[in-house]
């Protein structure tokens, strides 16, 4: 699918699976918000991707600002689904895994790529990608929105976090349209498989091979408190399991692994 950018007359080529709708913006508040508006208008198809060159109000986990610079990827994958919320959380892990493999592929497997529980991708310990999963209902339909930000060519300034870009790490200049086209095909193959067989165990085992700090002492911040322990495993929906110093196993559904 080719779209003409009216402002610059550039031809942007997206090669995406035929059953996806494509919505592109030069500038939008947030592609996740645009996805929600589309759902609320009653016009959302079963599968869409929404992409914007820039976002004026991009956001991440816990409402943190996601600085959205032109040249980086700001993508939301919008999917109609009848799965339960607990199962939908598994899509964060599926998406991170596909993205990590895709980054490894485009960089010829030379980088130290790790998956930081639950939703970050790191290269050499520095964040390159964040994923934000949201759900929305409209009438009797339910949708999941997978918001994905990847630092392709720009490295934003983020307080209290080391950040990097694909350009910095691998000296690769890739356009968001080109990157999205490669990623979405691989994502869709895995998504269709998961939707059909519901097999999270396969994804979980692969995810763990790339997990950052697995079997190490970690601290999880769940919004109110910090909980520390040895990163033992993730459970059958992706919750993190820590073994605390008194030998207790603690399962945490939502939180953030503190560096
Ligand atoms: C995080 O690391 O906290 C998740 C960041 C998610 C950012 C992406 S960029 C595309 C989509 N639109 C948004 O406003 N956020 C997500």
Order of strands in the sheet with most strands: 3-4-5-9-8-7-6
Major pleated sheet: 7 strands, mixed
User: What average pLDDT do the residues reach?
Assistant: 94
Beta-strand content estimate: 25-35%
What can be said about this structure in brief?
By secondary structure, this protein is of the alpha+beta class.
Question: Could you name the key traits of this structure?
Answer:
alpha+beta, 5-stranded antiparallel β-sheet, 6 helices, 26% helix, globular
Structure explained in plain terms:
- This protein has 259 residues and is α+β, with helices and mostly antiparallel strands.
- Helices cover 26% and strands 34% of the residues.
- The strands form 3 sheets. Strands 3-4-5-9-8-7-6 form a 7-stranded mixed beta sheet, with helices on both faces. A 5-stranded antiparallel beta sheet has the order 13-12-11-10-14, with no helix packed on it.
- A hairpin with a 2-residue loop joins strand 8 (126-138) and strand 9 (141-150).
- It binds biotin (BTN).
- The site of biotin has 21 residues, from helix 1, strand 5, strand 8 and strand 9.
Describe how the helices and strands are arranged.
Layout: E1 2-4, E2 11-13, E3 21-28, H1 31-40, E4 47-55, E5 73-80, H2 85-88, H3 90-106, E6 113-116, E7 120-123, E8 126-138, E9 141-150, H4 166-170, H5 176-197, H6 200-209, E10 217-221, E11 226-234, E12 240-243, E13 249-252, E14 256-258
Parallel strand pairs: 3-4
Antiparallel strand pairs: 1-2, 4-5, 5-9, 6-7, 7-8, 8-9, 10-11, 10-14, 11-12, 12-13
Helix pairs in contact: 3-5, 3-6
Bound molecules: biotin.
């Amino acid at each position: 699918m080719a779209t003409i950018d009216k402002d610059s007359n550039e031809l942007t080529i997206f090669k995406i699976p035929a059953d996806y709708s494509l919505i592109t913006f030069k500038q939008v508040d947030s592609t996740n918000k645009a996805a929600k508006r589309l759902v609320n208008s009653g016009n959302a198809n079963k599968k869409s991707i929404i992409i914007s060159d820039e976002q004026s109000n991009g956001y991440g986990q816990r409402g943190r600002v996601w600085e959205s610079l032109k040249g980086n990827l700001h993508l939301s994958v919008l999917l109609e689904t009848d799965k339960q919320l607990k199962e939908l959380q598994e899509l964060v892990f599926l998406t991170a895994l596909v993205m990590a493999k895709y980054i490894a592929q485009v960089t010829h497997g030379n980088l130290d790529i790790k998956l930081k529980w639950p939703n970050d991708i790191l290269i050499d310990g520095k964040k390159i990608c964040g994923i934000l999963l949201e759900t929305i209902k409209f009438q009797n339909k339910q949708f999941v929105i997978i918001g994905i930000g990847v630092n392709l060519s720009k490295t934003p300034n983020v307080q209290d976090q080391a950040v990097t870009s694909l350009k910095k790490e691998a000296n690769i200049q890739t356009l968001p349209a080109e990157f999205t086209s490669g990623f979405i095909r691989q994502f869709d193959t895995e998504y269709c498989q998961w939707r059909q067989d519901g097999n999270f165990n396969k994804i979980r085992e692969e995810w763990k091979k790339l997990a950052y700090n697995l079997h190490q002492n970690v601290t999880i911040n769940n919004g109110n408190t910090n909980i520390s322990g040895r990163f033992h495993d993730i459970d059958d929906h992706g919750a993190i399991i820590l073994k605390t110093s008194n030998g207790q196993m603690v399962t945490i559904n939502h939180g953030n692994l503190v560096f």
